Amino acid sequence: MNPQIIGHIDMDSFYASIEIRDNPELSGKPVVIGSDPQEGHGRGVVSTCSYEARKFGLHSGMPISRAWHLCPHAVFIRPGKKYAQVSARIMVLIREFVPDMEQVSIDEAYLNLTECVSYPAAELCAWEIKKAIREKEGLTCSIGIAPARSYAKIASEIHKPDGLVTLTPDTLISTIHPLPASSIPGVGRKSGAILTQKGIRTIGDIALCDIQKLQDIFGGYAVRLQMIATGYDGSGLKDRGPSQSIGRDTTFASDTDDPYEIEEMLSELASSVRYELIRKKARCRTVGVRIRYTGFITRSRAVSWLHPDDSAQAIERTMRTIFFELWSGKPVRLVGIRLSGLVYPDPVQTKLSQYS
Ligand code: TTP
Ligand code: MG
Questions:
Q1: Is 192 in the pocket of ligand 1 (CB under 6 A)?
Q2: Judging by beta carbons within 10 Å of its beta carbon (0-12, 13-18, 19+), is residue 199 exposed, middle or buried?
Q3: Over the stretch 199-213, which tens digit does the pLDDT of each residue have?
Q4: What pTM does this model have?
Q5: DSSP bridge pairs for 283
Q6: 8 A C-beta contact, residue 132 and residue 118
Q7: I need a labelling partner for 50 at 20 to 30 A (CA). Which of 69, 103, 253, 267 fits?
Q8: Can you tell me the distance from the alpha carbon of 208 to that of 206, in angstroms, rounded to the nearest whole number?
Q9: Cα–Cα nearest to 277, from 247, 320, 251
């Protein structure tokens, strides 16, 4: 099995960027999303702010009155309702490139990039995701790629906004050790300040710190913290219960532009994923096909049915339709098929039907 490659994607100043996109006059200005500042007397907090506003010291969670005093000429906007819809569209887009993903907040997801096999290939996939989000949604994001979840999250922060940082097993330690200790997920502003007081400033300092000292501050989290700092964390995507999708892909021994060869391979993959579907006693709602051309340009599309199905005809027919939509005639390196939106039999219904 290949060693895992994990990605972390996080949209840049998400709510603020959506407002700026929808009102280009705001571009380049400090924009603050939050409650009404009432000329410095407002209650409530900053939800987020543009990177221009951050130059004045503003950040999420700051009292809105303080934000107003620090930057009274900023444009203050009340949070809108559209953010959830934009988020949902972005998550669908990301899933087209990386079906095995785990959304963790409105603008953040972990990606299992292991099937890219190499770090350069994972990076190309990340560039494509960034490009698609920019073209389709007019927004930028930052992506980190690393051997584990925690390092991917650290990496995505390094060159924000619009960053892409890859930490390979070889560069991991030398890159993360000089970073502030608060770069580790779970070390908040407050505990970061306590660490600084004790002379623990960087991730490297955490790695070398006496565990007892860390336990005094972080209790049970200290061991995990030091594990991350020393480069031993291996966490991947969280187990999300019964699998929500079944996917297979194959790289051709040599790249091919023969549509019959490609179709035949897809057919084989389709019967293999269908076998797995039947074995799980599940049906699926969505069939997705992925084609990676020579040079790693990847095209994928998914089609969903109104009713879940498990028949070979439905899966094959949908697979072929998508394939001919995606097919450009150029040499192909890899093809894949994925069944998602899995529906499992309701255990209560199944039991009842045994008696009827
Ligand atoms: P974040 O990803 O934490 O922040 P961000 O996307 O605005 O900025 P960054 O470039 O640093 O990633 O949060 C995503 C959105 O969640 C953010 O745009 C607004 C909302 N949010 C709140 O409403 N309150 C909060 O305290 C935080 C942290 C975020
Ligand atoms: Mg964000």
A1: no
A2: exposed
A3: 999 999 999 999 999
A4: 0.75
A5: 343
A6: no
A7: 103
A8: 5
A9: 247
Residue among 237, 263, 253 at smallest CA distance from 337: 263
Beta bridge mates, 8: 110, 144
**What sign results for the dihedral spanned by CA atoms 186, 192, 194, 198?**
positive
What's the token pair of residue 41? 């007397």
Tokens of 348: 């209560």
Give the pLDDT score at 220.
82
**Neighbouring residues of the ion ligand 2, judged by CB less than 5 Å:** 10-11, 14, 107
Count of C-beta atoms within a 10 Å radius of residue 314:
17
> What DSSP character marks residue 169?
T
Burial of 229 (0-12, 13-18, 19+ CB in 10 A): buried
Catalytic, out of 39, 52, 96, 108? 108
Q: What is the pLDDT of residues 235-248, one digit of tens each?
A: 888 876 677 789 99
- The whole-number pLDDT of residue 352 equals 45
Substitution site in 60, 82, 103, 143 for ligand 1 pocket (most atoms within 8 Å of beta carbon): 60
Q: Look at phi and psi of residue 59 and say left if phi exceeds 0, alpha if psi is from -120 to 50, else beta.
A: beta
H-assigned helices in the chain: 14-22, 51-54, 64-70, 83-97, 119-137, 149-158, 172-176, 189-197, 203-208, 211-218, 222-229, 259-279, 312-326, 347-355
The 10s digit of each residue's pLDDT in 67-102 is: 999 999 999 999 998 999 999 999 989 988 888 899
Question: Mean of the per-residue pLDDT values for the chain?
Answer: 92
Quick one: pLDDT at residue 354? Answer: 43
Residue 335, strand partner residues: 250, 291
Which residues of the chain are under the pLDDT cut of 50? 348-356
CA dist 41 to 31, 50, 67, Å? Answer: 18, 22, 11
